[in-house]
Amino acid sequence: MSKELTFSLDITVAIPTYNGVSRLPKLIERLLNQTGIKNISWEIIIIDNNSNDNTHELISKYQEKWHYNFSLRYILEPKQGAAFARLTAVNEAKGQLVAFLDDDNLPAQDWLIQAYKFADYYPQAGAWSGQIHGDYEVKPPEQFEKIQAFLAIREHGDKPLLFDADNLKLPPAAALVVRKQVWCDHVPSQPKLTGKLPGLLVQGDDYEPLIYIHNAGWQIWYNPDMHTYHQIPKWRFELDYLKSLARGCGLCICQLRLIHANKLQHPFIMIRTFLGNLRRLIQHLIKYRKQLKHNTILIFEMEFYLGSMLSPIYTLKRYHKKMNL
Would 115 be classed as within a structural domain? Predict the structure, then answer.
């Protein structure tokens, strides 16, 4: 039986950050200028995911001069990985809603009120996200819209819609809102996918909590009235970065699908994932073999199919490693 939580605030804005000292001031300024929130009780918490810059000193300076009727809190999470930072954020949050913002994701002036109102409009929503627009330092490559979702750009139109969680069509954590009670009831305290780490490319940590929430019967929604702007520097369009991103997004596919299924289904899911992506990879190579040396988008797609094909093998290796510990 789940424990009923008590809340002292309406909403917590949680900002996981790693070496974000140059990005946080702009984000905090956006939050200080939110509109329509006079009747909302809220707070900001900064979750420092073991940064080695001056993030702590920056937030301390803000706190020394803080004169607002909502608090700014700083929390250190020494376990590296965005998944651990988000777990800490939920555990520490005093709001019944937890609204995540990455430190490079800037909210529109009405983002907070739109995030808050959606909870009443859609009581069966356990989590929801909105429109995430790109704020690019340089022009994206041609046909970038084919892969923009991998860089957390989401523009699904001007009407609310349900995400298709069964097929892993889910929002990123960059500007996600969750009900704290729902998260605490259904998301395990130890994530399978922890987020990007040095030398570890595997993604999927954004999706894992949402799959647990969906499996518990809660809905995952898109709220078009929530707008944020993802700042994307030019280095994120470099080929080496895009290839590592694509491979990492593929390597998590099998583990995410296994969360949906019972253990008897696991071997079939692994075989189907391997063979299905092998077929996609071969078709891609045959169709685009003459363009794969110079077309960034096609190279990205090939790396994603390759990572997805290898994801069952990666999953088995992780399982055996865990069993041998």
Answer: yes
pTM score of the predicted model: 0.93
Whether residues 262 and 229 fall in one domain:
no
- Classify residue 3 by its DSSP letter: P
Torsion on CA atoms 233, 46, 176, 248, rounded to nearest 10: 50
Instruction: Give yes or no: residues 191 and 312 share one domain.
Output: no
Q: pLDDT tens digits for 149-169?
A: 999 999 999 999 999 999 999
Residue 136: CB atoms within 10 Å: 17
> Where are the alpha helices (H) located in the chain, listed in sequence order?
24-32, 55-64, 82-92, 111-121, 180-186, 207-215, 239-251, 253-260, 266-288, 296-324
CA distance 202 to 196: 6
Is residue 194 very low, low, confident or very high in pLDDT (cuts 50, 70, 90)? confident
Quote the CA–CA distance of 297 and 303 in Å, as a whole number.
10
Q: What's the domain range around 179?
A: 9-236
Boundary residue ending a domain (176, 211, 236): 236
SS3 at position 256: helix
For 198, residues 6+ apart whose C-beta sits below 8 A from its C-beta are: none
Of 129, 98, 311, nearest to 203 by C-alpha is 311
